[in-house]
Write a structure and sequence with these properties.
CATH class of the largest domain in chain C: Alpha Beta
Helix content of chain C: 10-25%
Number of domains of chain C: 2
Number of strands of chain B: 0
Number of strands of chain C: 21
Strand content of chain B: under 5%
Oligomer: heterotrimer
Radius of gyration of chain B: 27 Å
Chains: A mainly alpha (273), B mainly alpha (299), C alpha+beta (360)
CATH topology of the largest domain in chain B: MetI-like fold
Number of helices of chain B: 12
Chain lengths: 273, 299, 360
């Protein structure tokens, strides 16, 4: 399991059993809450219990049959989809622009793009609520998408920037010397080389917008509640296995996303030099 | 060999032409960042700026510092203390749990590391809300943890693990641990194993080689992870709101309460502005010590 | 295509650092010119200015009488071969070479013909469908070259293009490039820090140091008549002896020098002057008589170094300075190899006695 170089200089396997044991415990700690939800969601009971005494699909039926929950799911998907479509090109353009500028100019710009990660969500939430109230954007898809784009930008910028960092700028120069305009060189040479970073950024953007709940608590309500918003209310008010069913759907979705990312990453590895 | 070209001064020999061309190009790149900056400006700078203004407006509508003066009240002081306590414990905990994991990952073969990485990435990808909910279920009175502890004979009857300080801390630790592991791992990944070989050829025991060579080289990642986890804990809302059961009052919850329960925008704004100032001050101070921004795609 | 290139008063400042200082260079149509200099000398900056990736601070570059600097890189019609080849990893050999032709919207059959032609020229036709990461260094080099010439550029630029190859392959590629140039006669600017490569390949060499053009001449002239101490030192092995310039002419160690008839240029008005001596132009032998056409210096042999194809005799002058003399290790020269400590005379023909200025 260890690389040859590491095992030659490090402690032998049995001498580091404690490390393996410790890490196994930590991995358990990390993974259990993510997967334990799934069996609980098949409970027939009105209460959360583990292991469930009787199994059923009633909570899934309740989720998929409820117009309110389906509306919330559909709203969240729409918001996340629109956010991805807007944030990915904007973030990629910014990452490319910054990569071509001298460092002394880009440092403050990069920091401003990271602000949505740094500024506490609750502060943004009440600020945005206040501003949206004046603009009539509370409880609108537009408002949710705008917030989603803002939150997603740092993720797109960071992933695409790191892709551009390992990209050999000479390839683009070569394309331009061969007769390609800047735009053409970017589209035919740069984009194919960083496409998995862009895809990862897009995925991050989708997830960031889909999972957002703190700001949604303020700017979405009633019929215009996003899925996380509705889940939050449900968890706080009535702890029943319905949220477990919703969560299981989301967990399975994240596993699928994770697999997509792992598969998408592979081709770039081959091309990496 | 002499040139056949007449020495006609072309337009471009004018130095200002080149300076203009260079400036034009720099600006066209800056232009690419403008749409993103506009979004952040309108949805972050303007709202937070508005709150900043609001925080200096008193009950009577005039400019005053009363919103800030009020922050010295015991109820707020308790909140600040609790927040820093939890943030400190969560940060320390994530170092203690994150360092061994990152170390193991960095020592594994790429294949094994990719498999183990799933344990870090899957929670990272899973919605915070879902994970917090899971802890709520696991830690409740009749939950899995309590029943195990009882059946193992460690405790006689279920103990309260949720709706309190413990539950909040465990939940936050779980959410923030990947933020420690990922930067640590990426900085450990760059440590050349030749350094360790060199150390052991100089006569250092594996333990000694670790502390003298590996640990100092992993410090950039450790700094980045620590800063990230601490700052995120300071402003954390969701997990304490759900796992604290109203008994744990953290900074951001206090902001929310002031808005939703008392409709006191002035107090909420002052709290928010202070939180932001503290966050940025910590970032700036640590950024001086170590360039954190470099780890996030900066060059 | 044969075009003349004329670089006029070209300067580039990065902040306070002067990367290029008033470069003036005239390249004849179809000429193969090498920019030679140590790393950081500005030769790559000059190439980047030609290619359009660095904007100069001032100056002008005329190609066939037309200003180049106002054109964007993609309209310059310059073939550029990068040091790391810069082949597009997501394209195979054919697609890489076809790329510039597709941009020029050539017909499918025309592209096919020209790509095959270019690959034939670099002897790579059998690799046409290979992914580029499955090629060796030398093959990548040739694909990069084929891609740079396939669209018949007006100028071909090569940036340290051979430096990533091992010695044998590099020497082979040097000859191939030379032959290719003889066939195409594209005006070529080649950048290298390897003096031997420059001497082998070029029609003319431009020696660049600290951003300034020091000497622009044929390889022979650069080697045999370096103008400054820097050029003599950078191109070939050289021993420098201090020259005293008096009313009676130049002398070294008090002995008047016999100089070539055309020596005037470099002794015109130098701040200091040096006698540059190449090891292979020196001979060990009897002291020369006053009527001979040689300069003769007495020294003491210190050691002999065997280098396979030659012997290097290191001798010391009375002032402590060492000098190297190359002796061909053939039977006839056996008697010329001194033992350490033996006093010897080192002779050099006056036409091989080069005076250089101390300026860089």
């Amino acid at each position: 399991m260890l690389t040859a170089a590491a095992s030659a200089t490090q402690i032998r396997h049995y001498q580091r059993l404690w490390l393996y044991g410790l890490c196994a415990l930590i991995f358990t700690f990390l993974i259990v809450p993510c997967v334990l939800i799934v069996p609980m969601s098949f409970s027939a009971s009105n209460y959360l219990e583990f292991p469930p005494r009787a199994w059923s699909l009633r909570w899934y039926r309740e989720f998929f049959d409820s117009a309110e929950w389906m509306d919330a799911l559909w709203l969240s998907l729409r918001v996340a989809g629109l956010t991805t479509l807007i944030a990915t090109p904007i973030g990629t353009a910014a990452a490319y622009g910054l990569s071509q500028m001298p460092e002394r100019l880009t440092k403050p710009l990069r920091m401003s793009f990271l602000l949505p990660m740094i500024v506490p969500n609750i502060l943004v939430a009440i600020g945005v609520f206040f501003v949206f109230a004046k603009l009539g954007l509370n409880n609108t898809v537009t408002g949710l998408v705008l917030v989603g784009v803002m939150l997603a930008l740092p993720f797109v910028l960071v992933t695409v920037s790191s892709g551009l960092q390992s990209f050999d700028g000479n390839l683009e120069r070569a394309a331009r010397s061969l007769g390609a305009t800047r735009l053409k060189a970017f589209l035919t040479v740069t984009v194919p080389q960083i496409k998995s970073s862009i895809a990862a950024g897009a995925l991050f953007a989708f997830v960031a917008a889909f999972d957002e709940v703190v700001i949604a608590l303020y700017i979405s309500s009633g019929e215009n509640s996003t899925l996380p918003r509705r889940m939050f209310a449900n968890i706080r008010d009535q702890v029943d296995p319905l949220v477990a069913a919703v969560s299981s759907v989301l967990v399975v979705a994240s596993i699928v996303l994770l697999l997509i990312v792992q598969i998408a990453k592979r081709p770039e590895k081959g091309a990496a030099r | 060999m002499t040139s056949v070209i007449a020495a006609v001064p072309p337009a471009s020999s004018d130095a200002s032409y080149f300076a203009r061309a260079e400036r034009r190009e720099a600006w066209s790149f800056a232009l690419l960042a403008v749409p993103g900056l506009v979004v952040i400006g309108l949805l972050l700078i303007v709202p937070v700026g508005w709150l900043f203004v609001l925080s200096f407006i008193g009950k009577d509508g005039g400019v005053s510092l009363e919103n800030y003066a009020r922050l010295a009240q015991p109820v707020y002081v308790i909140t600040f203390v609790t927040t820093f306590q939890i943030a400190g414990i969560v940060t320390l905990g994530s170092i203690l749990l994150g360092y061994p994991v990152a170390y193991l990952l960095s020592q594994l073969s790429p294949r094994a590391a990719a498999i183990c990485m799933i344990f870090v990435i899957l929670p990272f990808w899973t919605s915070v809300l879902v994970r917090t909910y899971a802890w709520l279920v696991l830690l409740q009175r009749r939950g899995l943890i309590n029943s195990w502890l009882v059946s193992l004979g460690i405790i006689n009857e279920p103990i309260p693990l949720v709706n309190n300080f413990i539950g909040t801390t465990i939940g936050m630790l779980h959410v923030l641990l990947p933020f420690m592991i990922l930067p640590l791992y990426s900085s450990m990944k760059t440590i050349d194993t030749d350094y360790l070989k060199a150390a052991s050829s100089c006569g250092a025991s594996p333990m000694r080689a670790f502390w003298d060579v590996f640990f100092p080289l992993s410090r950039p990642g450790l700094f980045a992870g620590t800063v990230l986890v601490f700052i995120l804990s300071l402003g954390f809302y969701l997990t304490p709101a759900l796992l604290g059961g109203g008994r744990v009052s953290m900074w951001s919850m206090q902001i929310a309460t002031n808005v939703s329960t008392y409709s006191n925008w002035g107090a909420a704004s002052a709290l928010g502005v202070l939180l932001l100032v503290v966050t940025i001050a910590i970032l700036a101070a640590l950024n001086k010590v170590f360039r954190v921004d470099k780890l996030y795609g900066g060059r | 295509m044969k075009v003349p290139v004329s670089i006029r008063g070209l300067s580039k400042k990065f902040g306070l650092f002067e990367a290029l200082k008033d470069i003036n260079l005239d390249i004849a149509p179809g000429e193969f010119v090498t920019l030679l200099g140590p790393s950081g000398s500005g030769k790559t900056t000059l190439l980047q200015v030609l290619a359009g990736f660095v904007t100069p601070t001032s100056g002008s570059i005329l190609v066939a009488g037309e200003e180049l600097l106002t054109r964007p890189p993609h309209q310059r019609e310059i073939g550029l071969v990068f040091q790391n080849y810069a082949l597009f990893p997501h394209m195979n050999v054919f697609e890489n070479v076809a790329y510039p032709l597709k941009l020029r919207r050539l017909s499918r059959s025309e592209i096919e013909t020209r790509v095959r032609g270019a690959l034939d020229m670099v002897r790579l036709s059998q690799f046409i469908d290979r992914p580029v990461d499955k090629l060796s260094g030398g093959q990548k080099q040739r694909v990069a070259l084929a891609r740079a010439i396939v669209f018949e550029p007006r100028i071909l630029l090569m940036d340290e293009s051979l430096s990533a190859l091992d010695k044998k392959l590099r020497e082979q590629m040097q000859i191939e490039l030379r032959h290719l140039h003889e066939r195409l006669h594209t005006t070529t600017v080649f950048v290298t820090h390897d003096q031997r490569e420059a001497l082998t390949m070029s029609d003319r060499i431009a020696v660049i140091n600290n951003g300034a053009l020091i000497q622009f001449d044929t390889p022979r002239a650069i080697y045999d008549r370096p103008r400054t101490r820097f050029v003599a030192d950078f191109v070939g092995e050289t021993t420098f002896l201090p020259v005293e310039l008096g009313s009676g002419g130049a002398s070294v160690f008090g002995t008047p020098l016999r100089l070539p008839d055309h020596a005037g240029a470099s002794t015109a008005n130098p701040r200091e002057s040096w006698l540059a001596l190449r090891p292979e132009k020196l001979a060990i032998g009897p002291a020369a008589g006053p009527e001979a056409e040689v300069n003769s210096f007495s020294a003491v042999a210190r050691e002999t170094i065997f280098q396979g194809d030659s012997l290097l005799v290191i001798a010391g002058f009375p002032d402590g300075q060492n000098i190297a003399v190359r002796v061909v290790p053939q039977e006839a020269n056996r008697g010329l190899v001194p033992t350490p400590g033996q006093p010897i005379h080192i002779n050099v023909h006056r036409n091989d006695s080069i005076l250089v200025s101390g300026d860089v």
